Amino acid sequence: MTRVRVDLNISLDGYASTVGDGPHDPFGEDWARLTAAYVGTRTFRERVLGKADGSGTTGVDDNYAAQYFEGVGAEVMGAGMFGLTDHRDDPDWRGWWGDTPPFGFTVYVLTHSEREPLEFANGTRFEFLNASPEEALLLARESAGGADVRIGGGPTTVRHYLRAGLVDSLHVAVVPVVLGRGINLWDDLRGLESGYRVTAESADSGVTHFTFEREDGS
Amino acid sequence: MTRVRVDLNISLDGYASTVGDGPHDPFGEDWARLTAAYVGTRTFRERVLGKADGSGTTGVDDNYAAQYFEGVGAEVMGAGMFGLTDHRDDPDWRGWWGDTPPFGFTVYVLTHSEREPLEFANGTRFEFLNASPEEALLLARESAGGADVRIGGGPTTVRHYLRAGLVDSLHVAVVPVVLGRGINLWDDLRGLESGYRVTAESADSGVTHFTFEREDGS
Question: Distance (Å, rounded) from C-alpha B194 to C-alpha A84?
């Protein structure tokens, strides 16, 4: 059965986004600190960077990185995550991921601007929707064909689905830094844990992986 | 060498205090959820409740509970933690802890009201100081005689010492609930991790223990 899944790296104080210095540095120096353990994993190096050379960490962080890529059949992401905040007026913008975006399925991008779909040789297809998050999720469920749907981000998009009670599985990697600015995942989510089984597992990196799994299995 | 130590239970979203319904319920229903794993430990039952019957959990949560009581020679706490927010006008108020407060050393209570010191048979002594946190810490260091000084709380007092860079060891037990209200430990502490070695350890309870230890060992 399709589950709706979210994975995020957040700081100890809950920040899931970082503040940069404009279009040439949209995420800022904090982004590297927030994602260091994840981008250091063998899975990230293989699946995102295409480096199948056996480099990268194995262990707890890598196990969660591998789960991120397993069983997903479609994704929904916000316009900012695709890059439209900074590249709205660039009709040739094709996302951050180069010629082989690490998806291999249809990604629905929520936006109010009109864009033609983009196709890549590895099966990744970006469709741009002027639709509500709920409508986009229905399309993604259909497209996933029984596999899982991932809400890719950014945090504002994720928070919408969490508040609406539409997420079945939430994995947050809590990185032991205090950022103090950005978008806070937890704002206005009091009682989120209700209805979920919550587990925690720490890695040697100092990152702790919290997982919220819907108890009814739906 | 004396270290200045802090131990707190906080929610996933960083709240170290809970909101109650007035003097008869100063902490509210969230307090029990925030402290459930800690008060369930064998150490808490022995050291705070005086129940040396072998009941209570052992394991990761209990290991940290035991460390809380080890090697401390003096404490500083805020007026609210002693109960003066609700009992300021009660000259007979002797704290929350009954006849055997679980200290056994001098506790310096920061307050602007005049109170005579309180002595207990188990060696606990409360002294009430109209002084700055820094002055109180100097007195506590002297009183500790080479043992550690604990900043007992509440979170506002703890945050003052953290912002001033006066804490050598911070242990936070992150409880997997989202509270959304209270006093947030992390506010205005961007970059706190700098100069500390940060480690994390998860318990089966779902609680994760983050420890910040000053790297220079001072």
Answer: 34
Quick: pLDDT tens for A133-179.
Answer: 999 999 999 999 999 999 999 999 999 999 999 999 999 999 999 99
In A, residues 101-130, which contact B (CB 8 Å cutoff)?
none
- Residues A76-111 pLDDT 10s: 999 999 999 888 889 899 999 999 999 999 999 999
List the domain range (segments joined by +) for residue A207.
4-214
Is the entire prediction scored with pTM above 0.90?
Answer: yes
Picking from A153, A1, A4, the residue whose alpha carbon sits closest to that of residue A74 is A4
* Overall domain count for chain A: 1
| Partners of residue A33 in chain B, C-beta under 8 Å | none
Strands B208-214 and B196-202: antiparallel
DSSP class of B184: B
Terminal Cα-to-Cα distance of chain B (whole angstroms): 8
Locate tokens 């040439």: which residue? A24
**CATH assignment at residue B22:** 3.40.430.10
How far does the CA of residue A100 sit from the closest CA of chain B (Å)? 35
ipTM of the complex: 0.91
How far is the C-alpha of A33 from the C-alpha of A38, rounded, in Å? Answer: 10
CB contact under 8 A, B208 and A206: no
Paired tokens of A101: 């975006």
